[in-house]
Structure prediction request, 175 residues.
Amino acid sequence: MVGSSTSGADRLVIDVVELQRRTGTRRDVRASLVLLDLEVGERCVLDGRLGVDLVVEAATEGIVAVGTVRGESRVPCRRCLDDVIEPLEVEMREIFERHPTEGETWPIEDERIDLTPVVRELALLGLPLAPVCREDCAGPEPDRFPAMAHVEPVEDAPAPRDERWAALDDLTFDD
Prediction:
């Protein structure tokens, strides 16, 4: 970790007093965090371990944090449901202000910024939605449920009719 910041295993707080004295002042921040409960259903950040590598810079509107959050994700394969472990990498570009706009910027409180909730949110949003363990994964019971890639497409099949629109079939327009 570079610069004066407080980083426990579960918090990353940066003192921004020096940064705010002059616009354009920058500080590199590198830290490792262990955040509990980084999971959404069966998807999770492996062991809650995340690496943060970013630059914090004073701007006219407040403090801008730009960088990357890295870890490993564990997500079930969408076909066979075996665990897929793959790298997680999410880009960060966030603004911190004294009077934050809800849902858009983050607060500066007591001359410090707390990156922990930002990192938590980005990691959860960056979890893969539906990975496959390998491209040729056939699923849990390939004989009973063949993969859709092996099904022959039906040519020139009529579109299913929606009876709710049947009254429009008789509609004519006279010029």
User: Anything to note?
Assistant: The beta strands are 5-8, 11-15, 26-34, 39-40, 43-59, 62-76, 83-97, 106-107, 112-114. Confidence is low (pLDDT under 50) at residues 1-8. The CA atoms of residues 19 and 48 lie 30 Å apart.
